[in-house]
Amino acid sequence: MTATQTPAAGLRHLRGTPDFRRITLALFASGLATFTTLYCVQALLPALSTQFGLTPAESSLAVSFGTSGLAVGIIPLTALSGVIGRTRMMALSLFAAAALGIVQSVSPAFTVLLALRALQGFALAGLQATAMSYLAEEIDRRSLGYAMGLYIAGNGIGGMAGRLIAGLVVDLANWRWALAVVGLVALLCAVVFRVSIVESAHFVPAPPRFRQLAGAVGAAFTDSGLLRLFACGFLLMSSFVTVYNYLGFRLLSPPFALAPIAVGMIFVVYLAGSVSSTLAGRLVDALGRPRMLPVTAAITLAGVALMLSPDIVVVVIGLVVTTAGFFAAHSVASGWVGPRAATLRVQGPSVYLCCYYLGSSVGGSVGGLAYGAGGWSGVSLYVGALVLGALALALTLRKLAQATPR
Questions:
Q1: What are the Cα distances from residue 167, in Å, to 33, 52, 60, 218, 294?
Q2: What is the pLDDT of residues 170-212, one digit of tens each?
Q3: Boundaries of domain holding 194
Q4: CA distance linking residue 216 with residue 210, whole number of Å
Q5: Residue range 231-287, pLDDT digits in tens
Q6: Cα(5)–Cα(382) distance, rounded to whole angstroms?
Q7: What are the residues whose beta carbons fall under 8 Å from the beta carbon of 262, sequence distance 6 or more?
Q8: What's the pLDDT tens digit per position in 16-74?
Q9: Does 310 reside within a domain?
Q10: Element (H, E) at 399
Q11: How far is CA 375 from CA 39, 159, 243, 265, in A?
Q12: Which protein family is it in (predicted)?
């Protein structure tokens, strides 16, 4: 079966088939490109602070503008994908984001960099708005959890690769070269995606109906289960981005006083997110999401507590646990939204992603105020409160288990 052929009518791709492997490779590459470009600047925040004379909170706007653009673009590009097709939208998004990433390396001022980051985030929204819908349409329900886990795993490795590459290059050269190299990596991922992706077999093009879309988005907020999942995504992402935004500043300062290259190497722990999201996908297929979500949130909270230690080894262990818990929780929550929203016939995945990336934009910036006011202790209190909120919501979601598709 070639990339332009489709499975038999009514059939969807099962784990183990050649096209399932092609789809998961393509979506893995897309997740890799998305998180590589979106969060590489976290490793560059100290360098940007020095270059442009910014506070940590001000430099973190380079992250917030990118995720804000993504949040703004999610819903309109969801509607556009219904016209031009899922795979075309995802490919256009990836190539545009890669090009904008390369252009960022020649930004003459911080304000120009912020504008380009916002445009890049908007471009990436086309991928994020479409990927989960594509998987839900093309993958058999019995294999959806595993496929979603692999997609999130690509996000995890992308987050690690972006921070690691940027951290290494900025230590050897400067932040401009770091952005250029990351942009080229994203371009390679876009090529892999376009070559590997299997064309949609269950997508039916339709003209944009903005009134119906607005109604479907509004209806999503009338379901208490979806509301709690949206809030979980917001809170978890707020906490996670805050940790990675400001950890570099902590580790570069006494008592750790690590070299920039050593701080960059610590981002290898992002691989824990790839492992945990894949494992969570398998466990969801076997155990169900109502059992898994509270456990993953509790793991995240334990990691945050460990990172309070003044011992660098314990801090790294805590970062591993936090990263693993977050990606597992995101994999479970995002995979839960799609089936529930489809059953209720509302627009769920795009709203979840909008809330998720608003968490990165708003929550991450507020975390800078916590860091400025109380250092890492302030960050830990702030992040701990956010994760506790997500854990409480996850526990209440268990009561909706019978009404929620697994």
A1: 17, 18, 16, 41, 33
A2: 888 899 999 999 999 999 999 999 999 988 777 777 776 667 7
A3: 18-400
A4: 10
A5: 999 999 999 999 999 998 999 999 999 887 888 788 788 778 777 877 877 787 677
A6: 50
A7: 251
A8: 788 888 988 898 899 889 989 998 998 899 999 999 999 999 999 999 999 999 989 98
A9: yes
A10: none
A11: 22, 24, 12, 22
A12: Belongs to the major facilitator superfamily.
CA dist 196 and 184 (Å) reads: 19
Number of H helices, E strands in the chain: 16, 0
Nearest to 309 by CA among 253, 219, 377: 377
> Cα torsion for 107, 110, 114, 117, to the nearest 10°?
40
Specify the CATH number for the domain of residue 213. 1.20.1250.20
406: in domain: no
CA 231 to chain centre: 15
Task: For the chain, report the end-to-end CA distance as a whole number of angstroms.
Answer: 30
Closest CA to 246 of 9, 5, 43: 43
Supply 179's token pair: 């952005």
User: What are the tokens at 233?
Assistant: 């995504």
| 361, 238 contact by CB (below 8 A) | no
Residue whose token pair is 């809330």: 355
Q: Residue 307: inside a domain, yes or no?
A: yes
DSSP code, position 401: G
pTM, to two decimals:
0.81
Sequence length of the chain is: 406
Looking at every residue in the chain, the average pLDDT score rounds to 86
Integer Cα distance of 232 and 292 in angstroms: 13
102-134 tens-digit pLDDT: 999 999 999 999 999 999 999 999 887 788 778
| pLDDT per position as a tens digit, 347-370 | 777 788 889 989 989 998 899 999
CA 46 vs. chain centroid, Å, equals 22
**273 is a domain residue:** yes
Estimate the crossing angle of helix 289-306 against helix 312-344, to 10 degrees.
150
Write the DSSP string, 174-226: -HHHHHHHHHHHHHHHHHHHHHHPPPPSS-------HHHHHHHHHHHTT-HHH
